[in-house]
Write a structure and sequence with these properties.
Layout (H helix, E strand, L loop, with lengths): L11 H11 L5 E4 L11 H5 L6 E2 L2 E5 L9 H22 L8 E5 L6 H11 L3 E5 L5 H5 L6 H15 L4 E4 L4 H6 L8 E3 L26 E8 L6 H10 L6 E8 L3 H10 L6 E5 L6 H5 L4 E5 L4 H4 L4 H9 L3 E4 L2 H10 L2 E4 L4 H13 L2 H18 L2 H23 L1
Parallel strand pairs: 1-3, 4-5, 5-6, 6-7, 8-9, 8-11, 9-10, 11-12, 12-13
Antiparallel strand pairs: 2-3
Helix pairs in contact: 3-4, 8-14, 12-15
Amino acid sequence: MVSQYFWPENFRVNDLVQEWTARGHAVTVLTGMPNYPAGTVFPAYREQPEQFNSYHGARVVRAPMLARAQGSLRLVLNYLSYVVGASLAGPWRLRGEAFDAIFVFEPSPITVGLPAILMGRLKRAPVVFWVLDLWPETLAAIGVVRSPRLLGAVGRLVSFIYNRCTLVLGQSQGFKSSIAKYCADESKIRYFPSWSEQVFAESHADPAPEVPSRPGVFSVLFAGNIGEAQDLPAVVEAATRLKDNPHIRWLIVGDGRRSVWLQDEVRRRGLQERVLLLGRHPIERMPSFYEHADALLVSLKKDPVFSLTIPGKVQSYLQSGIPLLGMLDGEGARVIREAEAGLVADAGDTDALVKNVLIMAAMTPEARQAMGHHGRAYAQREFDRGMLMDRLEHLLKQAVHMRSGQAT
């Protein structure tokens, strides 16, 4: 496994590695030092790094790198330092060891593929690349890169990586056409979505003590990354328009690059009584926050690249059995509508989100419960963890056979 992010950071890759070891596979993870999302190395890791060298039986190899810190330049250096650190530490610390396959977890950046390709060449192993974030489209969509020349250079890097992988997996059906623009051999592109994490199927979590109990109040919960893509300005505007409604509140659980902006904006608009900023918590604790939710909010900015995306939280939301409020386009909206699991507004449509919040708040508990049941049934049918883990195991075996065929 090659991933810039790994435990104790909260990413789906942790669940994947745990499943592989439970199935009897010998797993080695080549990753960096835990510093996401705050941008500083976790104190527990700094004090006792040796405690983080193993995870559920998987060996963890940490490459030296710069923490994210603050600012765009430091983020670029963070990305590049992982590439250099992993490309040096991986071959050296894993010298003499053989691997059947190399799997790349890519929520962003695309550069994580470079040390994986190097390891694939050195170990004569197939590389399977799981695309969770489309580059260079995402860079343009969130305004990180505006120069056409630089975007073109990133596109060439993407093409270099895809064309040196044995299989390229896209997290939605919509990803396949975008991947194909940079991958010369379309036959190696596969659809592989994220799964519903089992922790969200728990039905008897104790309510989180951090959230005040407010009987009669309709609570909309947003959980996850607080970044550019999530269009928090539109969410804050919706909360502002409902500011005078004492029966609506918003619970924000998460952290990210726009957290400080969000805190400042909530204060500036006088939303402290309506919008509760609850910070980041381990995934194991999330069901306790969901216990306070009457609806779960998922939002993405209006941009063609985001319309191709199924946000990872959608699967978890569906599995929880709580109805969804969506403010997004494309694949994510399609899933919610197809599942009959909630109400959807177009990306950036604050008016429609406000209307849907009021509609859902006025529903009977039984009607909302029916939506939640539909969502859970859909998640179990389309995003079942065991089914998708079986599929991924098959894809890895397929990659091994494909690589063996090329070698012969």
